[in-house]
Backbone:
């Protein structure tokens, strides 16, 4: 039995970090990356706690264990994770429905991850349903970026309702798709 809620304790945050470690590209084989997807950004406890203090992460729990999570990241934290500064710079340049993204009130998906044991069971879609329920009263939409190499993640995000609104090449040569899920409809 899964429950979908917000991360409220240090234990929740530590379990998010543990799940993150198991899914970072640096800790996966090439085959795992191709078949299961991967995470790029590695957080430490302090930054994860700071992010969670601004806006709570949404988690799926199986009994007392985090089985999946979606991190929420506000614009206030744009300089706190150096690897994401280029994403925020790109977001500042994007127009959506004839307005700059910066003119909207949006939340960034700071990272999405489902434990391998729960993949293919609908947890990803249910996490995003909870993310929207918890956050849509305060935001017009959610936006994130997905590495073009992470085809599984891009397919899953598209299935939930995200649309690709821009692509760009990061300074390291990685190609990213910026995706947005409009909650105003």
Residues:
């Amino acid at each position: 039995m899964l429950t979908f809620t917000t991360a409220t304790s240090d234990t929740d945050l530590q379990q998010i970090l543990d799940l993150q470690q198991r899914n970072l590209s640096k800790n996966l084989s090439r085959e795992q990356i191709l078949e299961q997807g991967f995470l790029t950004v590695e957080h430490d406890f302090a930054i994860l706690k700071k992010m969670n203090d601004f806006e709570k992460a949404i988690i799926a729990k199986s009994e007392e264990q985090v089985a999946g999570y979606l991190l929420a990241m506000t614009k206030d934290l744009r300089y706190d994770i150096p690897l994401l500064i280029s994403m925020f710079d790109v977001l500042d340049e994007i127009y959506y429905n004839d307005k700059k993204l910066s003119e909207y009130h949006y939340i960034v998906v700071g990272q999405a991850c489902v434990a391998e044991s729960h993949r293919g069971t609908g947890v990803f879609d249910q996490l995003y349903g909870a993310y929207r329920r918890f956050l849509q009263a305060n935001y017009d939409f959610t936006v994130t970026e997905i590495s073009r190499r992470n085809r599984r993640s891009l397919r899953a995000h598209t299935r939930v309702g995200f649309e690709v609104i821009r692509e760009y090449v990061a300074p390291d040569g990685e190609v990213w798709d910026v995706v947005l899920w409009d909650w105003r409809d």
